[in-house]
Design goal:
Helix 5 links the parallel strand 4 (about 80-85) and strand 5 (about 100-105). By secondary structure, this protein is α/β, with parallel strands linked by helices. It has 11 helices and 20 strands. It is elongated. The chain folds into 2 domains: about 10-225, Alanine racemase (TIM Barrel, Alpha-Beta Barrel), CATH 3.20.20.10; about 245-345, Lyase, Ornithine Decarboxylase, Chain A, domain 1 (Beta Barrel). The strands form 5 sheets. The chain has an 8-stranded parallel sheet. A 5-stranded mixed sheet has the order 19-18-10-1-20.
Length: about 375
């Protein structure tokens, strides 16, 4: 028997979200971020759907192994590795899997060129990362033209120039984001003057897609929005988004507790009246955060019931109230909709004091995977 806790990825909704992105940005190319197992949604299945339905032109990953896994799954779309790649072995593995690498300094340019030569490749495409304000990785704008020229000197092809937006998703980030777009545009002009035309200039993440057309350039890179969540609760809702995932389990045990009895580790919940407690086989070992203890809720039969006590590693208890309204085997919705009732990823993130990205990325490998 499979573990009853199941994460169902709603591929049709992800497809619809990407079609919404395309409608929003017009003729720009679309890169779908599928790093971190497609933000917890299943990278191979999501990428295969994207390629099959032609709803994005590129894919984006964070590690070489993420890209290699997609290639092993038969995905042929171009894949950009966002972060710099260091070391002969890792660069060699990336090139063998036809991943497009990012370069950020002279060392990364030299090493990529050297490894490409070792394996008999010439004119390998790279994308140059420029730091326009994130202050994480990337060449300084003033140094970008010289580095772009060096890329050509080293026998590589500068296919792309890109940067990243740290606060494009918040209303108070508009001025900073516009300034970044201006810096990026002027840097791109200087780079092209020094090294010739650059095919793909890209800056917009989900926040940029939703609220900042000045950041769109040649290609956009939506991430969290394609999985149905806004990057920030206050982000502009210019694209209708559908949830990309639902998380469900089943009742494993039901028992009565008397008023005044405590439930769970630490005895943090006391029954305010005679109640029935349902136990469900899900906990922080599945990625259902302990931060939801005594504050989260679930849906059973389309009705909402609160978590009673602490979320355990493998189990969680639910207060059903004074009547035994659930039986062993009944479906329990942790994230998702039943009838008019819904628990969103955003709601769970808010209860945890975090962001939707983390909620879905936390789902662990022992959770059963399903795709619809």
């Amino acid at each position: 028997m499979t573990h009853p806790t199941t994460a169902r990825t709603l591929l049709g909704n992800i497809e619809a979200n990407l079609r919404g992105v395309r409608a929003r940005v017009g003729d720009r190319l679309v890169l779908a971020a599928v790093k971190a197992n497609a933000y917890g949604h299943g990278a191979a299945a999501v990428a295969a759907m994207i390629e099959r339905r032609r709803v994005a032109d590129w894919l984006g990953v964070a590690t070489v192994d993420e890209g290699r896994q997609l290639r092993k799954a038969g995905v042929t779309l171009p894949i950009l590795k966002f972060s710099p790649t260091r070391g002969e072995a890792e660069i060699g593995r990336a090139l063998a899997s036809a991943l497009t690498l990012s370069v950020v300094d002279e060392a990364s340019v030299r090493e990529t060129s050297r490894v490409a030569g070792m394996v008999g490749l010439t004119g390998v495409d790279v994308h140059l990362k420029v730091d326009t304000g994130m202050r994480r990785v990337g060449v300084e704008p003033a140094q970008a033209p010289a580095l772009a020229a060096r890329i050509a000197d080293e026998g590589l092809r500068l296919q792309g120039l890109f940067s990243h937006l740290p606060i494009s998703d918040t209303p108070d980030g508009a001025a900073f984001t516009r300034a970044q777009a201006d810096v990026f545009a002027s840097t791109a002009a200087a780079v092209e003057a020094a090294a010739g035309p650059v095919e793909l200039k890209h800056l917009a993440n989900s926040g940029g897609v939703l609220g900042h057309p000045e950041t769109w350039f040649d290609l956009v890179r939506p991430g969290i929005m394609i999985y149905g969540s806004l990057p920030d609760p206050d982000a502009e809702r210019t694209v209708e988004l559908r949830p990309g995932l639902e998380l469900t389990t089943a009742v494993s045990f039901v028992k009565p507790v008397a008023a005044g009895e405590t439930v769970g580790y630490g005895r943090t919940w006391t029954a305010p009246r005679d109640s029935w407690i349902a136990t469900i086989p899900v906990g922080y070992g599945d990625g259902y955060s302990r931060l939801l203890s005594n504050r989260g809720r679930v849906l059973i039969g389309g009705n909402s019931y609160p978590i009673a006590g602490r979320v355990c590693m493998d189990q969680t208890m639910i207060d059903l109230g004074p009547d035994p309204v659930a039986e062993v085997g009944d479906e329990v919705v942790l994230i998702g909709r039943r009838g008019d009732a819904e628990i969103t990823v955003a709601e769970v993130a808010d209860l945890m004091g975090t962001i939707p990205y983390e909620v879905t990325c936390l789902i662990t490998g022992r959770v059963t995977r399903d795709y619809a």
